[in-house]
TrEMBL record, chains A, B:
EC code: 2.7.1.39
Protein name per its UniProtKB record: Homoserine kinase
Signal peptide annotation: none
GO biological process, one term: threonine biosynthetic process
EC primary class: transferase
């Protein structure tokens, strides 16, 4: 694990969890879908129509009491899009992410949150709760829980650089949602917490779940539809190797501008080609086939070609990583981070070095690289304090 | 199994086979891909560029001698597109298909084929070998084998109605390819025979493999790319139930006109939606989830909406089949056949009857229905005669 080149890096161990949804437990999954369908039809009749001003519908039958005084949660970085999986596929990676500590705070008006502290953001994030990813997700989680009797304060410790294409906003939101839920005994499932995260994402980078869902749930998550919201966890078989090499250049790609670069009309033949590559990507994930995963991830003919020229050096980074044995390489999220995949740990150093060199020589950008496994757990509580 | 309403129906038992490729044997699969890549780069540098006038490159190292005097093969009907899998996904179904008998014939010029007999086509198919699906595929298989010393005659028995959307041309081609290959001891794999079938398909309905590949290989097949040709067998888990209810109206939808109905430019949001549904379709197949398979298959927002109005009654057929418990329903191939899916055999009769009624009442079309399981085998030899 090479982290020394990455600014603001956080590391946390990530083993197997007993979280049912990410293991595709069908009985539980079905029960949840019913609830989500009911919820989503009232909340979000189509993508983008989430009412940002109205509170979320309460999912609990009665307001739960806090069972902890403090809960600290970690949520991992996510690689969304994965080439042809644009806007509907993402995965969580170990070793990078954000921490949020939620506390019951008598100094805060009941039903409200305040942001108590933010570190690791170089002073760039707002302390206004409804202008802060963690604040919005924390408040939205309180709405889902139906919390009206206590106020909470949140402390955010950013491990992820902003605007890096690694789901920085989603990680803050996911950590806040899990921490707030934990204070009340975690009555909501991670799938239910996706609603709180979606509200936060809608404010920051558009109504899309391909970062927030994997950051919460772990593994690969396919967003099949938004109305109703239907999330499908895709389990990469344990026992199969998969390494993500992330090269993060010192260059901020604003998510909204990168979205604008994507063509609004697609030729049929490109549509069909990308669809078949997305289908192959799913087959690769479920089959644990890292080579096919890399090939499919590198085969996007729509979004990557439009965005790649906006990230200096990206085209060279892709070519050079694959010359060093990466099965494929593409832009992580909306960039500028480049992600390459391999199942051979011994190649990761050469792949990472070639990517850093690519950014430097062809993009005149300083960059660092790090190597990550899939985070199967997603967001989780790492510390708690009883009353 | 209800077949009485279907004209020209053929039935053949279809059990488990030991065919390696359709079982995803990765070692063999990798070896084949190398060969196919080599082959495809010389034969077809991009979709549609297959040279219809030039012979296919020989894949054998030496011309094989015939080991049989006669071989009769059956190839199953196929359901292509499957909604969002437009042009890259198809599957083979049991109980419907074409037969081709290939014979070593001293009366035929060495290296050539002739069409000796055609039944079940109401006199509509050509006896000119290079204007007949079975003839083109038979001749192309001889080219792949390198046959120059003997001539062959082919007899075609059509079980599939023409222009029905069930891969009629592909079934004839697949049966011819398997029968000719069998005469020489079957040195070519089914994946290699796809090249012969593709040449035939290119003449009849465009250069696409989503019927010919599953008709040859069985099961579900994902066509990831054409240049190089990369076919991915998707194994629906044995032990999971899946029934296809096919309603075939008396209405011929010409494949080329149905292709023209498909929009050439796709809005980004529709592209993303269809991609995510195609991805879900693959997850459903590999997970043996018939409900999700049906939901995804019924969720195409691009091709089905464009073609459905051209098939009288189709919209009603879809709605009525789902009211009777089908998980989903869409157009099979380019139509006019409608395909509905369920995992509950007890519902198939009501689903089929509702589809027939839908075509009659809303489309003023007579129709029949039949119920089919997945054909895991694909094309196979059913009869042979030694010298």
């Amino acid at each position: 694990m090479e982290l020394s080149h990455v600014r603001h890096s956080s590391w946390i161990p990530d083993g197997e969890s007993s979280f049912l949804s990410s293991k595709c437990d069908h009985k539980r999954f079905t029960r949840l879908r019913v609830k989500l369908v009911r919820c989503s039809t009232t909340l979000a009749s189509s993508p983008g129509t989430l009412d940002l001003l109205s509170p979320l519908e309460q999912l609990t039958t009665a307001e739960p009491r806090p069972v902890l005084k403090l809960a600290k949660a970690f949520a991992p970085a996510t690689v969304a899009n994965l080439g042809p999986g644009y806007d509907f596929l993402g995965c969580a990676v170990q070793g990078l992410g954000d921490f949020v500590t939620a506390e019951v705070d008598e100094g805060v008006e009941p039903g409200k949150v305040r942001i108590k502290n933010i570190t690791g953001d170089s002073g760039r994030l707002s302390y206004e709760p409804l202008k802060n990813c963690a604040g919005i997700a924390g408040k939205s989680t309180m709405e889902l829980l139906g919390i009206k009797s206590v106020g909470l304060s949140l402390s955010l410790s950013k491990g992820l650089p902003l605007g890096s294409g690694l789901g920085s906003s989603a990680a803050s939101a996911a950590a806040a949602a899990v921490a707030v839920n934990a204070l009340f005994g975690s009555p909501l499932s991670k799938m239910e917490l996706v609603y709180a995260g979606l509200k936060s994402e809608a404010v920051v980078s558009g109504y899309h779940a391909d970062n927030i869902a994997p950051s919460l749930m772990g593994g690969f998550v396919l967003v099949r539809s938004y109305a109703p919201l239907h999330l499908i966890p895709l389990v990469f078989p344990s026992g199969k190797q998969l390494f993500f090499v992330l090269a993060i250049p010192e260059f901020e790609a604003p998510t909204k501008e990168m979205r604008k670069a994507v063509p609004q009309m697609i030729e049929l033949k490109r549509h069909t080609a990308n669809c078949s590559q997305a289908a192959a990507l799913v087959a690769a994930i479920l089959g644990g086939n890292a080579a096919l995963l890399g090939e499919a991830l590198a085969s996007d003919t729509i979004v990557e070609p439009a965005r790649s020229p906006m990230i200096p050096g990206m085209a060279a980074v892709k070519i050079q990583s694959m010359k060093q044995g990466a099965y494929g390489c593409t832009i992580s999220g909306a960039g500028p981070t480049a992600v390459a995949v391999t199942d051979d740990e011994s190649k990761t150093e050469a792949i990472g070095a070639s990517m850093v060199l690519g950014f430097r020589e062809h993009g005149n950008l300083r960059a660092g690289y790090s190597v990550h496994k899939l985070s199967k757990d997603g967001a989780k509580v790492v510390e708690s304090l009883d009353f």
